Amino acid sequence: MATGKLRIFRASAAIVALLALAAFPAVLTAATEPNLPTLPIPALNLAIGSAEGPQDVVLTLQIVALITVISMAPAILLMLTSFTRILVVMGFVRSAIGLQQTPPNQVLASLALFLTFFTMGPVWTEIYDRALVPYIREEMTAEEAWGETVRPVRQFMLKQTRERELSMMVRLSGDPQPNNQDDVRTMVLIPAYVLSELKTSFQMGVVIYIPFIVIDMIVACILMSMGMMMLPPSMISLPFKILLFVMADGWSLVIASLVTSFN
């Protein structure tokens, strides 16, 4: 079987080499004789000119605004969705067990991203049905579509924002005391929401840490009673913590707790 694969590889290499040798004279002739037709090479030209009217200025500003929004897309994803809480809590899980790079950061970030899509699905579905589709069908203006886009996101953030953090940000902004949720500016709501997400994730992290700290304390006491004070307790307790996490189906419990915490 291996001999057959080796023969196929050698034959393929020989065919590629023959094609390269056959094409080399043609390439050399095209390079030395300019009158022969050659393959076109695309060129990219960047030029800055003066605007011929207000329409050109508006178009330029729209392009700049679009590029700015695209560059801020990661920050928008972090600040306005459930991504922050999910990623921080999963980081606490890894630290509580005592693992440094397992699971890797890429795996945790990817899992947090897909869980964000899952938890934010109803919000994005509402945006699609009430804002994007009517705007594409020209049933509403851009301003109306923007309002319908922001409204579900604001409702989600207000539901998850703590009153204490929101009051603090309103006080720091100097705005008058709002009479209802609609009076809270979005620029005030976003940092209050992020602070609430960090506080919630840290509270969940403390709960996650407790059983693993108990295991560390038990192992440390056993080692001290045996006179093994020079042996790091974390080296002995790590397998037991991983075993406990696996037997308790820890990832399922953590993910279920995270998803239900947004309801």
In short:
The protein is mostly helical. The protein contains eleven helices and no strands.
What is the global morphology?
Answer: elongated
Helix content: over 70%
Distance between the termini: 57 Å
User: Which regions are unreliable across 5 or more consecutive residues at pLDDT < 50?
Assistant: 8-34
Separate helix tally: 11
Pairing-aware structural class of the strands and helices? mainly alpha
Number of strands: 0
Order of helices and strands: HHHHHHHHHHH
Mean pLDDT: 76
Gyration radius, in Å: 30 Å
Largest β-sheet summary: none
The percentage of residues in β strands lies in under 5%
Q: How would you describe the overall organization of this protein?
A:
- The structure is a single chain.
- The chain has 263 residues and is mainly alpha-helical.
- Helices cover 76% and strands 0% of the residues.
- The chain has helices at residues 2-32, 54-71, 73-80, 83-97, 105-119, 121-136, 142-160, 163-173, 186-225, 233-247, 250-260.
- Residues 8-34 have low confidence and may be disordered.
Features:
mainly alpha
Chain-wise SSE layout:
Elements: H1 2-32, H2 54-71, H3 73-80, H4 83-97, H5 105-119, H6 121-136, H7 142-160, H8 163-173, H9 186-225, H10 233-247, H11 250-260
Helix pairs in contact: 4-5, 4-9, 6-7, 7-9, 8-9, 9-10
